[in-house]
């Protein structure tokens, strides 16, 4: 579907349950610095990972509608929980606009695994969804995959905690029942988690490879924009606008800091 020249200059919309999706938008900006970006973080309702599927669907549709009213040419659901709960219905409803989601990057983890365990850190809802179970089943025979629900980690990151003793203790507690020497890869199955990569590496050691889905999502976004003929003009520097449902300057300041 070729959408025409006027679409090229429109911004790309990103959405997450809070500040986590900025890790995905940051990767997209690396790949396409000439594009304009609008980000909507729903920190007022974070975390999504402990809500019901219907609640997440309603919040996700509200966010998508907000971005579409801003005149975006594509929507990226930069939230694993929202993707697993609502992406199919969103695409069915908004047929005229590319909608890109994100899922745990299990495939590259399996390919890089040297026979050790693969840990999937994610929210309880992401791990409970049928979409995730299908993903697990696809690779179950190829690797020893262990889901690790991390309720509480999103809240820490939303409050600006991306390093320090409180975070290290939280992670130590999460991994206490797993032999760290047997871990070959950790899949960061929530877009908030890349912001605490250093802390995770500190707890697990350098041997464990940390993998997230932001690069794959950014590549798919670029591919879809190219296919639809709506890539922006590469001879310019794009602009960024950030909105948040909290309407609090602190979360906006945190958002811009996380993009640095």
Question: In words, what does this structure look like?
Answer:
With 260 residues, the chain is an alpha/beta fold. The chain folds into 2 domains: 5-102 and 214-258, Rossmann fold, CATH 3.40.50.1860; 106-212, Rossmann fold. It is built from 12 helices and 9 strands. The protein has helices spanning 5-8, 22-31, 53-69, 80-93, 106-112, 124-128, 130-139, 153-158, 165-174, 197-204, 214-227, 249-258, and strands spanning 12-16, 37-41, 74-77, 99-100, 117-122, 144-149, 183-188, 209-212, 240-244. Strands 4-3-1-2-9 form a 5-stranded parallel beta sheet, sandwiched between helices. It has a 4-stranded parallel beta sheet with strand order 6-5-7-8, with helices on both faces. Helix 3 crosses helix 4 and helix 9 packs across helix 10. It is globular and about 55 Å long. The relative contact order is 0.21. Mean pLDDT is 93; it is low at 1-5.
In short:
With 260 residues, the chain is of the alpha/beta class. Helix content is 44%, strand content 17%.
Radius of gyration: 18 Å
- Uncertain spans: 1-5
Major beta sheet, specifics?
Answer: 5 strands, parallel
* Total domain units: 2
What's the tally of helices?
12
In CATH, the topology of the largest domain is named Rossmann fold
Please state the second-level CATH architecture of the largest domain.
3-Layer(aba) Sandwich
Side-by-side strand order of the widest sheet? 4-3-1-2-9
Ends distance: 35 Å
Mean of all residue-level pLDDT scores: 93
